[in-house]
């Protein structure tokens, strides 16, 4: 049995499996014009919209300032390749994030292991191919 209840400003709807099995009859009035009014990552004047949900909250928090400096540098970078003149800003952001591993997952250890494993597999495959090639050459010479 599905039902609704209101808690403060929120309405909580409990739906059953059967409710989800049939098509929705909800009347949703969203106009494409309304969606176009919402700014994206880059505002019409070319500035960065730091409130864009697409940034996932990275512009706030303990490393918000270094993130904004690095991202802003990249956005406005005239260098080729783009952002190559922003290494110091990205290094500062990375150093900040390393100080807060509980907020910013440290991928560097995982990446290092993955790269290391990939290199090992590549070396093993290369060694197998080389050995097979040498064996093939030996058998051609002896026949």
Q: What's the helix and strand layout?
A:
Blueprint: E1 3-7, E2 10-14, H1 17-21, H2 32-37, H3 64-76, H4 87-99, H5 108-142
Antiparallel strand pairs: 1-2
Helix pairs in contact: 3-4
Give a verbal description of the structure.
With 143 residues, the chain is mostly helical. Helix content is 50%, strand content 7%. It contains five helices and two strands. The protein has helices at 17-21, 32-37, 64-76, 87-99, 108-142; strands at residues 3-7, 10-14. The protein has a two-stranded antiparallel sheet with strand order 1-2. Strand 1 and strand 2 form a beta hairpin. Helix 3 runs antiparallel to helix 4 (87-99).
Quick summary of this structure?
It is built from 5 helices and 2 strands; from the N terminus they run ββααααα. About 9% of the residues have low confidence.
Low-pLDDT segments: 118-124, 126-131
Structural class estimated from helices and strands = mainly alpha
What pattern of helices and strands is seen along the backbone? EEHHHHH
Q: What's the β-strand tally?
A: 2
Question: Which features would summarize this protein structure in a list?
Answer:
single chain; 143 residues; two-stranded antiparallel ribbon; 5 helices; 2 strands; elongated
